[in-house]
Automatic annotation (TrEMBL):
It comes from the Bacteria. InterPro entries: His_Pase_superF_clade-1, His_PPase_superfam. CDD domains: HP_PGM_like (cd07067). It comes from Mycolicibacterium helvum. Pfam families: His_Phos_1. The lineage of its organism: Bacteria, Bacillati, Actinomycetota, Actinomycetes, Mycobacteriales. This is Phosphoglycerate mutase. SUPFAM superfamilies: Phosphoglycerate mutase-like.
Length: 185
């Protein structure tokens, strides 16, 4: 029998960009974000990973975790939209991006590319027995869920991931199974 991998994926806490509805840059957590992590318990862990951005590293630190940075947990690259509010993006381009998962009007990364990147990461993590915690971004967590469920990329925007929330999966044998999604504090 193969060993079980228990994966808890934690969404970074609130940032000013999230609160204002801007495309993310490499911003820090805001005061609300720091408070959201008070009392959040991820349980016992064997391996802790996080994305390279400041907000994921800060989330790990505030949870008292020493995380290794894994570039494959980086946020969806929004290219030249980074830091812009939604009203500063051409409506036609935004609509195309939200309805065509393989499009990339911002010259960053498409949703389909993100899902592929995360698929590779999940394949590697499936060979890491024990309890793994990964602190990352809502977009990456959506991609994790879509991969686990073998759902189509067009479902990407139908999944809401709250700041400082946990999504739990396990892997035994051949497939990932979604165990639960726990909202943040």
């Amino acid at each position: 029998m193969s060993e079980v991998v228990r994966l808890t994926v934690v969404s970074h806490a609130m940032t000013d960009a999230m609160a204002a509805g801007r495309f993310p840059a490499d911003e820090a957590l805001n005061a609300l974000g720091a408070r959201q992590l008070d009392g959040l318990d991820v349980g016992a862990v064997d391996t802790v990973l996080c994305g390279p951005e400041t907000r994921t590293r800060q989330t790990a630190e505030l949870l008292g975790l020493s995380a290794l940075v894994d570039a494959r947990l980086a946020d969806l690259d929004c290219g030249h939209w980074r830091g812009l509010s939604l009203d500063r993006v051409q409506p036609g381009q935004l609509a195309r991006w939200l309805t065509e998962p393989d499009s990339c009007p911002h010259d960053g990364e498409s949703v389909v590319a993100l899902i592929g990147r995360v698929r590779g990461w999940l394949a590697d993590i499936s060979r890491t027995p024990g309890r793994v915690v990964a602190i990352t971004h809502p977009a990456v967590i959506r991609a994790v869920i879509l991969n686990a469920l073998d759902a189509p990329p067009k479902s990407f925007w139908r999944i809401d991931i709250a700041p400082a929330s946990r999504t739990t999966l396990h892997h035994r044998g051949m497939v990932w199974a979604l165990r639960s999604a726990v909202p943040g504090q």
